[in-house]
Amino acid sequence: MGARPQFIKLAPLAPVLAGRFNHLILHTGQHYDREMSEVFFKQLHIPKANRNLNIGGGGHGAMTGAMLAAIEKYLLQTRPDFVLIYGDTNSTLAGAVAAAKLSVPVGHVEAGMRSFVKDMPEEINRRLSDHASDLLFCPTAAAVKNLKAEGIKKNLIRSGDLMFELLHRRRATIKKNNRPLKKHGLQPGQYLFMTVHRAANVDCRDNLEKLLAIIEQAPLPILLPLHPRTRARLGRFRLLKRLERCDRVVLERPMSYLDTLTAAACAQAVLTDSGGLQKEALFLGTPVLTLRDETEWVETLHQGNRLVGLDPDKILRSLRRLPKVPRISYRINGKAPSTIITSSIDRYLSGK
Ligand code: UD1
Fold first, then answer.
1. What is the pLDDT of residues 93-136, one digit of tens each?
2. Is residue 325 part of a domain?
3. Whether 337 and 236 share a structural domain
4. What is the best residue among 229, 277, 290 to mutate for testing ligand 1's pocket, by most ligand atoms within 8 Å of CB?
5. 297 and 336 share a domain?
6. Cα distances (Å, whole numbers) of residue 244 to 31, 191, 233, 252
7. DSSP structure string for 41-58
8. What is the extent of the structural domain holding 290?
């Protein structure tokens, strides 16, 4: 793994895996800034990676290709019995292909998620990774259905969601933390929390201008930590100054796990294009307006998530009538996702 959302999924699983197997962690280096990587390892007590390949930045082909070659080399040196990949980033795809080509069995955490938007980079990564995998750990019932529809019928495991497991464990610390609100003088329930980083939203000027229009018309202050990709694109299109001038917005650098989740828990609503934060906010009881026209997490549409795209009218209307958020459980048939995943790998390797 190598990107921020993958560290979050690894955190609750790493200790359980290490209790059963000799567990090695390979960091591709896709995310490399301290606040995009190291902070997560420290705060979530993730053991230091056994190797960091330091492959970050560049185009999709260059990045994925360099990772593929380097992961293959690492697998040849360490000869693992099993490789686990997470989510849908370029690191996921490179790991899947490298392991499958060496006939090392692969387990995919967060298998079966689909947006059905074929040119979305993550959708390509998901589809290819799933089809190269041997064990498919599906967080939702919809994910199981998606895989069956693509002809993958064996070793589908309804594992639940590791992000929820971590949140369940961290809920008290998240509630106690007052750092992000205190720092910016924000009151609980009196601000919006926004994150945006998807290529489709930030790589074109028109969509960035729509985002600025949304921020400028917001009825409440907006706390907005800027992902490096978003900051770079705003700079390139000469829109960063306009955003900085907007008195509605409180700009932040990328925030730690704890501060992000506290900011989400205390906000009146979360506006995001992140798959992870969509679910995390709902788990903490905060309604979500998703800045996309579709979501892989279709269950969330009955749990307080609204798809609003980049349409300011839709957003303002939704903010006036925010959906209710039900309680969400992290267990599947009474079991934690980390336990389900670890025992499934164990059974698979012992041929049961
Ligand atoms: C990647 C994933 C996306 C995931 C997101 C989480 C892919 C295709 N996309 O998107 O699915 O939701 O991570 O954040 O894998 N950069 C920095 N510092 C960093 C990391 C990145 O400056 O620590 C820069 C990179 O050099 C690059 C840009 O940000 O120019 C984008 O990074 P990249 O890893 O390509 O994609 P993300 O947008 O982060």
1. 999 999 999 999 999 999 999 999 999 999 999 999 999 999 99
2. no
3. no
4. 229
5. no
6. 25, 17, 14, 11
7. HHHTTPPPPSEE----SS
8. 166-320
